[in-house]
Amino acid sequence: MTKLKLKFYALFIFSLISYGIQAQSIVDKHGRLRVDGNTIVDKSGTSISLAGNSLFWSSAGDSSDFYNSSTVNHLADNWNSSIIRIAMGVKESWDGGTGYIDSPIAQKNKIKKVIDAAIAKGIYVIIDWHTHEAENYQEESVAFFREMAELYGQNDNVIYEIYNEPIKQPWSVVKSYATQVINAIRSKDSDNLIIVGSPNWSQDVDVASQSPIVDSNTAYALHFYAGTHSGFLRDKVKKALNNGVAIFATEWGAVNADGKGDASVSETEEWMRFLKENKISHVNWAVSDKPEGASIINSGKGISGLQNDDLTATGVFVKDIIKNWSDDTPKNEDTTTTGKIECNTVECILNAMKNAKPGNEIVIAPGTYVALEKDNTNGRASLFFSAKDGNADKPIIIRAKDALNPPILKGKEGKYDGYVMRIIGDYWQIKNLILEDGSKGLVFDNANNGLIENITVRDIGEEGIHLRDGSSNNLVTGCNVSNTGVKKPGFGEGLYVGSDKSQHNNPYSPDCNNNTIENCIIGPNVAAEGVDIKEGTLNTIIRNCTFSAEGITGENSADAFIDLKGAYTFVYGNTFNLDGSTIINSAIDFQDRKTNYNTGYRNAVFNNTFNLGTRGADIPSMRAKGGSPSEIHFWNNTRNPNTADPTSSFSLKAMVLSCPSWNIVKCDNGDAGNSAPTVSIKLPNNGTKFTVGETISIEAIAADSDGSIAKVEFYNNNEKLGEDSSAPYKYSITNAQIGNYNLSVKAIDNIGATAEANITVTVSNVIDTDTSCVFNTPSPNALPTFTDAVFLNAHVLGTGGPDLSNLKKFRINWNSTSNILGRFAINTNNGVPTYYLDLKKKMTYDFSKSKPELTISNSGISNLDDSYWVAENNGNFVMVSKSGNFTIYFNNSTTAPSCNSVQSLQKVSEIKIKEQIKLYPNPVRNQQLTITHIPEKGAIVKIFDLQGKAVIKQTLENTSKTVLDISQLKTGLYVVSIQNKGVLKTILLSKL
After folding, report:
1. CB 807 within 8 A of CB 828
2. Fewer CB within 10 A of the end CB, N or C, for the chain?
3. pLDDT at 329 exceeding the cut of 50
4. Per the residue annotation, which of 140, 161, 165, 463 is the catalytic one?
5. Residue-wise pLDDT tens digits, 365-382
6. From 3.20.20.80, 3.40.50.2020, 3.30.450.40, 3.40.630.30, which CATH number describes the 48-324 domain?
7. Is 413 a known active-site residue?
């Protein structure tokens, strides 16, 4: 044979081999799945996480029939589905005799079509005994699975799920049933994977893990629905994994557990991250066109609806997850991943970014590059993506080949679907590119020490450039951002640093620090703020940028050029142009987000120019929007035209009109070395209680060691009351009305430095019937440390508090030294509102200062949402309601502390009864109550509701006759108590 012929045959054989590799199916690649410790591995021993779809009940009549090869083939080809689950109905009250128990032949014929199709297609198939009471049909189950094992046990594709969802059955019952069925399977199939459900809808995997089944290749089913199940269920899975068993999520939904509602996107994404991290395979419920939230196909559209992508919103969301879950299609590796990589195709760019190494320089030729597929790492869809790291010596560079003719990287025109570019690696340099047509432009997630230079971001659904999830030490320079918020105007910021407090640490780290934005052009048509600096960030610089307000929308309260919510932010050398906007209501907003972590303090704004056109008199340079911001320094800025600055008194309270010693740029000598003044409140004392109509006299003491006091300002609840420019510094509130008064004084020295002092007083016409249950709150000290404290009892003292009888345990982990609250959560014994309630996500708190406090909202527990003083009492944790008449006392004793919410009205031995006292009319229909024959002047009448709360108090000066105004009383029963030195008389009053 000639050398030429040898070469031809060698190439022919190689092409056949290559074709065989490319056509390799999922099951060809991974083979028989098996349990190895707490993971499921493939034939090579590699941990694997696959994704697929579950069919609907095979016995159901309210969905089209998807039990056919067309369904299997489409899901495998179009969804990249690796698994199909058969939910074979066994017997239900509603199935009309169509389930397996009544119609075994019909059911077996139906499911065999799917099993055979899956084997032919090379994907895995789960044969599920779909019932909630399998132990009632043990004999039939044993026979069924023995038959399936005999028919299909030789195929690596087949997985047996022998119990869908036990409900209230104890694990011992489930285990006994499972052992019998497993024995039947193993008599015919010795090694295919078996999955067993666990009690409580296949959620108690931790319970099952404590007494696992003796079989070398058995895993445990996990079922969850993101709209209902959250962190508490993931905690149970972690326990099971720690106990050494393997988990397979054979059924999950993005909606509520009842199959209804819309997809819970954020919680689903949290679940997907969890499954990825723990190498858990999963199957989504359900391939159905039944009109309910969990269905992936629009109602009544059948198999053609599936094939033509006529999907529900949930279906679109789920398809994206499954399709992008794993990369099981072999690709030719780019062998040129060192040094310079020149690209002129989308595939080249994607491959170069995916496989980037330190020192790579990805150079993109002029042109337009439209990415059609999305990466879904960590549940965040993006078009051009990399998770690779460079290093300080060898950064990864992606840039234009011609800086004067930059390439355009984009998504599908007008779809705004997926981030245009997302980097989750360190030491990237991105230069001279145009990014457009994505949900976001450029996103750095936990990407540090990066450079974003001369990037144009435009035509974006939401924000332009986002530094997120701990991204720090990055420089954004020379960028040009415009036309953002096309799809969601309220989220169309030009540049966004950090994340909202609702996302802190779950899923994003708030610590996006030491980032600089400089020499950028932001606007026009940036729909929200030009720059939004979020709470939790530190040391952000915004300098030498030009902002245009043209096109800002005002949606989601976006009506300023910049929103400052972090700490140590420096804004200087910028130009802000109104450009005819009628939406802008403030040049720069600042606020404290009450997270107690790098928010609302020490921000500096200086050497900027505000060009405000004809609206100068209406637009303040600075505006405080919430919380208690402090040390907001503002100086040496220019307003055009030079109108008066309409900054409010609330804003000025937080502002200092001078350069601080901590400024990033050295202050002028005139401001250097100035010491802040001192101030304290002499009168009244903190916690003083006044009655309605009294005068609250406030006196402050102020001094300045290196200058003089210009004035002292007086505030109540952040509203300025007045000021005094000469000592003694005083202000009086006359005819005080009911309420809590958060009084503060602010001393301002001759240079503009400030100091503050605060107290709280109360005005009421109700007698304080109890002091022992408030446990000396508000405490003058910070809350002491509670290290991983666990309390098994909650005592609700008083009336009107929450019902915590279902408490299993309360946990708090508070470190007062580092000011970190690690945990604040409740476990319940009945799942109401959930088994694990993370209250930390439901509250704001301040434990690190005097008067430690918290506010809970949207907890799901009736009467728990409230503001509380908190304290430590004998090692126990106490919450005292600010507005209600109750205290929550957490301890490890079944005995409540000795304390009553109101004084008893039944201590007869202390009562000197005076029968001649008269009270009429009783019952009373009108708004007045008359009391006569009062024996002593100065007696006190108090009216209590039946919960023991005093609702009226009045001194009786006329002994012959006194008329009370009771118009505030609602219909019901009350106790009237007339006292002097002791209780003179108690009378039951009926208000009609």
Report:
1. yes
2. N
3. no
4. 165
5. 999 998 888 888 888 899
6. 3.20.20.80
7. no
